[in-house]
Amino acid sequence: MLEGSGWQEDCAAIFECSAGCKLVMKNKAREHIAHRHHRDAVSEHLERLGDTTNPSRRQAAVALGKLGDSRAVAPMVELLRSETDASIRASLILALGAIGGEAVAERLGEITPQSPKEADALAKARDRILSTPLAFEWQPELALDDLRIEVVEGLERPVSRMLLKEGFPETTVERPGLLRFSAPVAAERVTPPPRYAYGVRLLISEAKATDDLEAVADALLTTAGDRPYWNTHCPRPDGTPARYRFGIEGRNLQRDLHQKLLRKIRTSLEPLGAIDSPSHYMFEIILNFSDDKARLYFRPSTFKDPRFAYRLRDVAASMNPVVAATLSRLIPVPLPGAIIDPTCGSGTLLFERGFLSPDSPLIGIDVSPEALQSAQQNAVASDVAGRTELRNANARDSKAWSACSVVIANLPFGLRSGRDDPDLEGTYRAILANAAKTLSGNGRVLLASANRGLFERAITGDAAFRVLAKYRLQSGGLFVHIAILGRKEDRPSS
After folding, report:
1. By CB distance 3.0 to 4.6 Å, which of 246, 308, 341, 406 could disulfide with 321?
2. Exposure of 281 by Cβ count < 10 A (0-12 exposed, 13-18 middle, 19+ buried)?
């Protein structure tokens, strides 16, 4: 029996109508049934999402975003309070952004990202809701002291070398994923930041961390009043208010305490013409707790990142573009010859390496036609389509390979990709075997995988290559293992 307050009225009307009217009522009945199924689907996906033993929880979040039913907002927001899986948290945020609306924008503003992947998901969700994203602009000819740069956690040392090669000052590691410059940096040099950085932030003030967080906040804000960033970046030349978002890192606080600290920030910034706008902001004020220190940071933000505007389409388990840009620079440049990505997905890693070698042909191999469609669109948007060849084939197939100087791949690792490969280790070994047949004598192989066991067995058991460097980075809630390989008879370059 169909339920609903409007259904009884529709049934009564059928008996009073002509045959034509009965047809209209039948259509309404079908619509009502479809609506009921829609409601049932929302409930079903929410139930799957709340079941921590269900392997398809992320897909449930994606499905809820596609349904776009506002009744899913409150349950998903509530789930975010307890969810710890970075991938599912990001999917929940993207689903909320797909549903949209002012209420969702407000809820998104209350979320403190727990990983770069989640921060990226927040930016995408907000960008979808907001039609006119705000961009922060530095004042002209400004030299930034006490500047930090956010980098891939685990790759701080190679990134320090990259920065030096580009003429930046020396850096030291303030904490994992955050480098501190030893000298002032011109603002235009970090607008936008280098491709291998998530962003930059300025230290406003620093104090000893104690259990009395309100007193700590008072001490930080007292010192902040003397900082030029605090007093000159907030007022806007056109008279419009500067908008900011307040966030806390390193501590999980009760909502009441979080609100008390936010009120202190508001009191300090309101006289400067800055207003709290967590879903539509130009910069972030971040209270960070690390070791025995409490630090207040100023972090300029933009919702649209011009560095990676070519990424029009993405695929499951794709690599963060900042990670891809960093990894692509771990191989010496230039290495003349083709670049092959045997598991290219949407092409981010392949294209980031291609930007460093503008004369190199780019070859992407993938078993998924959908992934190659995404890669093709991204290739056109990044102006590399003219030298890119995309091949729908299995990376195990030696016929899909060609002579090359660089092999670079984010290997499938059995999670998040939505594909089932019963012999991942065999795939890893086949990729190495094909690389051995096609790679030039001084060529390089860079492989990444979150499946440490299979990865280690494959690279250490290979007879053709030796390991030149290994790294372990953290991205999207996962530890990813990186190896750079060269032929055993080749000497590593200095």
Report:
1. 308
2. buried
Beta strand pairing call for 283-290 and 274-276 = unpaired
Tell me the DSSP string of 200-221: EEEEEEEEE--S-HHHHHHHHH
Please list, residue by residue across 1-33, b when 16 or more beta carbons sit within 10 angstroms of its beta carbon and e when fewer do. Answer: eeeeeeeeebeeeeeeeeeeeeeebeebeeebe
- Which parts of 291-423 are beta strand (E)? 293-300, 339-341, 362-366, 388-392, 404-410
Distance CA 156, CA 145 (A): 20
Residue with tokens 């030298």, as numbered in its chain: 387
| pTM of the predicted protein model | 0.72
Buried b (16+ CB within 10 A) or exposed e, 308-330: bebbebbbbbbbbbbbbbbbbbb
Distances in Å between the Cα of 55 and the Cα atoms of 58, 83, 119, 416 are 8, 14, 23, 10
What tokens appear for 323 in the block?
A: 């990670």
Q: Give 56-89 pLDDT, tens digit per residue.
A: 888 888 888 888 888 888 888 888 888 888 888 8
CA dist 53 to 57, 86, 353, Å? 9, 16, 39
For the chain, give me the number of helices (H) and strands (E)? 16, 17
| Cis-peptide, bond into residue 306, ω within 30° of zero | no
Q: How far apart are the C-alpha atoms of 364 and 401, rounded to whole Å?
A: 10
pLDDT above 80 for 413 = no
pLDDT at 235: 54
Q: What are phi and psi of 180, to 5 degrees?
A: -110, 125
Query: In the 8-state DSSP scheme, what is residue 119?
Result: H
